Amino acid sequence: MYKIVDHLKPNELFAMETDRLRLSVLRKSCARDVADYLCRNREFHRKWAQTHSDSYFTQRVQKDYLKYDCGEYRAGRLVPLWITYKDGSQRIIGRVSFFNFAYGGMMSCSIGYHLDEKETGKGIASEAVENACKMIMEYMKIHRIEAFILPNNVKSLALIKRCGFIHEGRRISYMHINGQWEDHEAFYLLNN
User: Which of 96, 160, 177, 181 could be joined to 132 by an S-S link, Cβ 3.0–4.6 Å?
Assistant: First the structure.
C-alpha cells in the first residue's frame, strides 16, 4: 500500500512511498541523477522509448525537462514520478508518469513507465505502477487511466495486465519509437 509523504526532501515537490520504493516529483537540481539514469539505460530503452536526440541525455537538457515537469505538475497536467529505493539512495531506478489529463466529464489520463535494466524481474515496476495508479485515482479522483504499449513488448504487456488493465484495441501509428512510427496496444484501468 502507498503512503503520501509529509516531509519532503529539498529536491522534491511531491513524494509517495510503497513497501520498497519512493516515487517523487523531482526538481531541476536532480538533473545529474536523471541524466545518469537515462544514459545507463539508453540502449536498453531504445527499442521501447520515443525517439530522442543525443542532447536529451545530457544534464543540461534534463534540467530543462525537470523544470518543465515541475511547472506541469503544479498546473495539474503531469505527474512525473521518479523511482528510487526508499532506503535513502538517490540512485534513480525508473519512472512512472501520468499525462494527458482530462478533467470534468472525462476524469482520465494516460500512464507511461520505464525501469532500469538491472532492476527488471524484481517486481519493482509492478509495485510502482499499481501503487501510483491507486494514488492517482484516490488523490486526484481520476476515473480512467490509459496505457499504450508496443505489441512486441512482451514484458510490459504482462506487467500492465498484472496491474489490472484491460485490453481495448490497437492504436495505429501511435508514437515515434526508435526512428519510426509504431502501432501500440491500448489498455485501460477504471476506478470502480
Answer: 96
φ/ψ of 131, rounded to 5, equals -70, -40
Output the pLDDT for position 177: 87
Q: Residue 42 region, left (φ>0) first, then alpha (ψ -120 to 50), else beta?
A: alpha
Q: What is the number of other CB atoms lying within 10 angstroms of the CB of residue 96?
A: 25
pLDDT of residue 48: 82
pLDDT of residue 12: 97
Residue 42, C-beta contacts closer than 8 angstroms, at least 6 positions apart: 57
pTM, entire model: 0.94
* CA 79/CA 77 separation, integer angstroms: 7
- Which cell goes with 38? 537515462
Grid cell listed for 67 = 523544470
Crossing angle of helices 124-139/154-162, nearest 10°? 50
CA dihedral defined by 153, 159, 164, 165, rounded to 10 degrees? Answer: -20
Positions in the chain short of pLDDT 50? none
Give the residue among 124, 120, 103, 100 at the shortest CA–CA distance from 112: 100
Name the residue among 43, 13, 17 with its Cα closest to residue 27.
13
CB atoms within 10 A of CB 121: 9
